[in-house]
Design a protein that fits this description.
Largest sheet: 6 strands, mixed
Number of helices: 25
Shape: elongated
Strand content: 15-25%
Radius of gyration: 33 Å
Structural class: alpha/beta
């Protein structure tokens, strides 16, 4: 719609009020062939199938937003199936042309013309039909005023033309009842004003401002017609008294613990002028693009159970109730076009331009899978496809002009996750003494010699008066403390008592070793010595039965074991060895903690080890990347030691975050916070792009909960006593074999003798 022609707006509202579901369709104001940026962004990420309408306007549409002719179905065909005496009265206010309230009434209540649109009804319907023949329409002359408009909105019984257009459909979104008010979160709170406002929005309309009127229509479409607000006020009537009227109980909608305040907005007014109006009435002025949304399309919702196999399911999407509702119009010369939006609980999709799909391919808009349901197939099941989180991640990256690949550490980490049965199994590795033992198990046998050599070199350099800080810096830089992981087939073999010593309880060691062996993280075997050449070899369980060929002399060893005992030892499994070799154990610990933190908070998925390419150039690797439902990406950099976090790393992470348009990024170090105080200098807070820090203090936590007014990333170093308590708790759960069990807070609290 041309934003410079008010008459077009009136005609568009008349068309939409005669279209089934039309009151839920947004109106786009176009000025000079250009869409406002906020509208262009919403077209890409909300449930908009195509752009079209009464007026053909030359406009450049965003990526993968289709232009077309809407398949509008006349609401009159739906309405005439209900007997006249069963209708609620339909009130249509009629204002004089030039009344400053005329188009505000139209945007808030809608308009019904004297006769239905013949082009919408089609050639097969007789002319001369009036709405009064189908429903009890009462046209009321009115002089526009806030008092009159409020009276019409607060009356329950009469219907407005907008309500008529949505007959048989659920329309509008409910306020966010989880909104608790603005907290002290270190994360950017996306859409916070939209969540805070809910429907409680007042639009100040300047004379002949199509932008303001379109905004008002769209807000009513998004929030539905069951509330008094959103509402519009002509600029000349936007007094302190008028705004105070709208604050009275029953007009603004309370929700959550922090929702219920009124917000004032406008497209046409300068921020200073808008702020003055709002402050005088004790309200908050906000930019229109911070509260604008199109909301869900009007529809008929249902829940069901589906069986998914390889990302596909067959669903009967038109219910018996839907077919009964549509049966009276089945002989009409054309049928309403139905589109099913499928969402899967617990499996989100990102709102992203690329996810909208190609013209004839699968579409995934606003976090749902879209499937057209032709009239001939409404009795049949349709196939619904669901993309993997990796496909979703690739799509979001493509929208930023990037390509992704799994890095070598990512492959190793993903393999381990798959082998242990999911991210939850990483909890079995959140024990620092155990991690140190695993690195020892995977090291080359000559590592002790290497570290002793460093000790001698240290003494010699100190004797030459080399400053201590220079010696230490050189040692860290040259990898004195880094383990050298043995290649496949080599490494140490440790007896069971080493695991028992780490855990301090034999049963805990038994349970962990059984779990690790079952998931191929450990390999059990025994050492065999040839009686002829004295060569020793380590054999896994599968190769233990005699006779055994000696790898030294080739002779067969018929009795390789002592008659009184077979002493088993353990070597590291290939899956875990590759994780340690690629230094991706920290990736797994960070991924497990972040998934636990953000699960249920719009997290689509998390992937370890992702390389990002821009025009063939590798712009960086995210050790972990988080993908959220709003399409945002968050990169995570993981280091074994704080010494690896330096200015060069920070600059590389900044480059990657800028390319990903990340709202924030994260640096994780697998050391206790008390051992790396220098890490704090790399933290960054709002209003800049936050850089959040993680250490073992968080990564080894048993429970991770994102709560209001708490900062899970807060720098609060734990002392050794706290960490020892945590380690003892880990061993206690492991001893009872409860690590794999879901958290049972009821059992924990109810049976706790310490709580009186």
């Amino acid at each position: 719609m041309d934003a410079e022609r008010p008459a077009q707006l009136r005609q568009e509202i008349i068309r939409l009020c005669q279209t089934w579901g039309g009151a839920g369709q947004p109106i786009l104001p176009v000025a000079g062939g250009v869409l406002p940026p906020k509208y262009a962004q919403l077209l890409q990420v909300e449930q908009i199938d195509l752009v079209g309408g009464l007026h053909e306007v030359d406009v450049q549409l965003p990526y993968r937003v289709r232009r077309g002719t809407p398949w509008d179905f006349p609401v009159l065909m739906i309405a005439r199936t209900t007997p006249l005496d069963q209708w609620r009265p339909v009130h249509v206010p009629v204002l004089e042309v030039g009344d400053p309230w005329e188009l505000i009434y139209a945007a808030v209540l809608g308009i019904l013309p004297e006769e239905p649109d013949s082009t919408l009804m089609g050639p097969h319907e007789p002319g001369g039909i009036r709405f009064e023949q189908i429903m009890p329409v009462e046209r009321q002359s009115a002089v526009g005023s806030l008092h009159d408009l409020l009276r019409r909105l607060e009356e329950y019984q009469p219907m407005s033309p907008r309500m008529v257009s949505n007959i048989g459909l659920a329309a509008g979104q409910v306020p966010d009842i989880s909104y608790l008010g603005r907290g002290m979160s270190p994360l950017p709170e996306l859409n916070i004003l939209r969540r805070a406002a809910g429907p409680n929005i007042i639009v100040i309309v300047s004379p002949d401002s199509i932008d303001d009127l379109a905004l008002l229509w769209n807000l009513r479409a998004a929030h539905g017609d069951r509330h008094v607000l959103p509402i519009g006020l002509p600029l000349t009537a936007a007094t302190e008294q008028a705004l105070q009227e709208l604050r009275k109980p029953g007009r603004a909608t309370p929700f959550g613990f922090g929702g219920g305040r009124c917000y004032v907005t406008s497209v046409s007014l300068a921020p200073e002028q808008l702020a003055d109006l709002a402050v005088s009435a004790g309200m908050t002025a906000v930019a229109y693009d911070s509260v604008l949304t199109f909301g869900p399309p009007p529809g008929r919702s249902r829940n069901g159970v589906a069986h998914w196999s390889q990302g596909q399911a067959r669903l009967v999407v038109v219910s018996d109730a839907d077919r009964d509702f549509l049966r009276p119009v089945q002989n009409f010369w054309r049928q309403p076009e139905l589109v099913v939006d499928v969402s899967v609980r617990g499996h989100l999709l990102p709102a992203d331009p690329t996810m909208r799909g190609a013209e004839f391919g699968d579409r995934f808009q606003a976090g749902s899978s879209q499937v057209n349901v032709p009239p001939v197939r409404r009795l049949e099941a349709v196939t619904v496809r669901w993309p993997s989180t990796w496909t979703s991640l690739a799509a979001v990256a493509q929208s930023r002009g990037l390509r992704i690949e799994t890095s070598e550490p990512g492959v190793a980490a993903e393999t381990l996750i798959r082998v242990i049965g999911g991210v939850e199994g990483i909890r079995y590795l959140t024990h620092r003494p155990l991690i140190e033992l695993l690195y020892e198990l995977a090291e080359r046998s000559g590592m002790s010699w290497w570290k002793e050599r460093w000790t001698r070199a240290h003494k010699e350099l100190r004797a030459l008066a080399v400053p201590e800080e220079e010696i230490e810096a050189a040692a860290v830089h040259l990898g004195r403390d880094d383990p050298v992981i043995a290649p496949s087939g080599e490494g140490r073999a440790l007896p069971f008592h080493r695991f028992a010593k780490v855990f301090g309880r034999r049963q805990a060691a038994v349970n962990w070793v059984v779990w690790a062996e079952r998931h191929h993280l450990l390999v059990r075997g025994a050492t065999v010595e040839c009686v002829e050449c004295r060569a020793k070899s380590w054999l896994p369980m599968a190769s233990i039965p005699p006779p055994i060929a000696c790898p030294g002399c080739g002779r067969m060893i018929t009795q390789p074991y002592k008659p009184d005992a077979l002493n088993f030892t353990y070597r590291i499994g290939e899956v875990l060895r590759r994780v340690l070799e690629t230094d991706s154990l920290g990736h797994l610990l960070a991924l497990r903690w972040l998934v636990s933190l953000f699960e249920g908070h719009a997290l689509v998925g998390a992937h370890p080890g992702v390389n990002f390419f821009d025009a063939g150039n590798n712009i960086g690797e995210a050790d972990v990347v988080l993908l959220f439902a709003d399409g945002s990406l968050v990169p995570v950099e993981v280091k074994r030691r704080a010494a690896g976090v330096d200015q060069k790393m920070a600059e590389s992470l900044d480059t990657l975050s800028e390319k990903l348009q990340a709202p924030y990024d994260i640096v994780a170090v697998t050391q206790p916070a008390r051992d790396c105080p220098e890490l704090v200098q790399f933290a960054r807070a709002l209003p800049d792009r936050p850089r959040l820090l993680l250490t073992d203090d968080q990564l080894h936590a048993e429970q991770v909960i994102l709560m209001h007014n708490t900062d899970p990333f807060a720098w609060s170093p734990q002392d050794e006593e706290v960490q020892m308590t945590r380690q003892n708790r880990f061993v206690d759960l492991l001893s009872r074999d409860e690590l794999a069990m879901p958290m049972d807070r009821v059992d924990e609290e109810l049976l706790n003798r310490d709580h009186s």
